[in-house]
Amino acid sequence: MASLLGSKMPELAVEVLPFDTTTEASADSTRLIFTPKGRETGVRKKKSVKDEFSARVRNFFETTVVSQVHDAALKAALQAPTEFETILHALERPEVAAAVRNQDPLAMARLRGIEAKRRMLSDEGGILSAEKAGELLTMSRQAVEKRRKAGRLIGVSLGRRGFGYPAWQFSERGTLTGLEAVLDALKPEDAWTKLVFFTSENAATDGKKPLDVLRAGGVEKVLAAARTYGEQGAR
Fold first, then answer.
1. Which of these, 111, 158, 166, 214, has the minimum number of CB atoms within 10 Å of its CB?
2. What pLDDT score was predicted for residue 43?
3. Average pLDDT, rounded, for the chain
4. pLDDT confidence of residue 202
5. pTM of the model
6. Is residue 75 classed as helix, strand or coil in its secondary structure?
7. Radius of gyration from C-alpha coordinates of the chain
8. Which tens digit of pLDDT belongs to each residue from 50-64?
9. Mapping DSSP to helix (H, G, I), strand (E, B) and coil, where does residue 221 land?
């Protein structure tokens, strides 16, 4: 695209736009057609799933979060060490929570659930990759994955990043003493339920976390708690 700028001493301004080219051929000629990239004559380009998702998230934050929170509170949220915690700080603002509840009464409960999961993964040494867990157990990544599938290790799905293994499962001698026996008692439960069991205070272990009792050598006590854990949740 070219244009002349100014009146007395015009300057030539040139803007190069990305474009696609197509050809139309006939018996006596060939036409080369230039179309601005991303546009098709008479046809609206369909947005990708990622574009749709990003647009919806941006709209939510602009209308429900940014428009509700004053600059000082946004500045305070920006002091959080990670992007996720920045989002949490903003969503936890009373004015934002009220606006969110108007759209979805259960939204804040879901948010607290997400935060609880984040804490479970970050506490007690965080999580390890299959490769790092393999180094501690002196075995291959494939062998670690095999143990997880057999229910002998806890591994939580991290999406495209594979599975993460809570670091507290491992000791200098391999895995925490009694871990596999307790996991066997919890076998019907999913990975998150097992995490909740080990890291939450439990009446069956005298109000202590089963993980702390296991570390102290109370394998039988934790085993008994694990055997009744599913039954308690079903009542």
1. 158
2. 54
3. 81
4. 93
5. 0.59
6. helix
7. 28
8. 888 888 888 888 888
9. helix
- DSSP for residue 201: -
pLDDT reading at 117 higher than 80: no
In angstroms, the Cα distances linking 60 to 57, 86, 101 are 5, 15, 13
Residue owning tokens 């806890």: 154
Task: Take residue 220 and report the two structure tokens written for it.
Answer: 């039988």
Strand runs labelled E in the chain: 2-5, 11-14, 19-25, 30-36, 127-128, 156-157, 163-166, 170-171, 174-175
pLDDT at 233 over 60: no
The reported pLDDT for the residue numbered 143 is: 95
CA 185, CA 229: separation in Å to the nearest integer? 9
Q: Using alpha carbons, list the distances in angstroms from residue 110 to 70, 149, 161.
A: 25, 28, 23
Annotate 147-196 with DSSP letters as a single string: HHHTTSS--EE-GGG-EEEEGGGEETTEE-TTHHHHHHHTTTS-HHHHHH
What single-letter amino acid sits at 224? A
Asked if 154 contacts 191 with a C-beta cutoff of 8 angstroms, the reply is yes
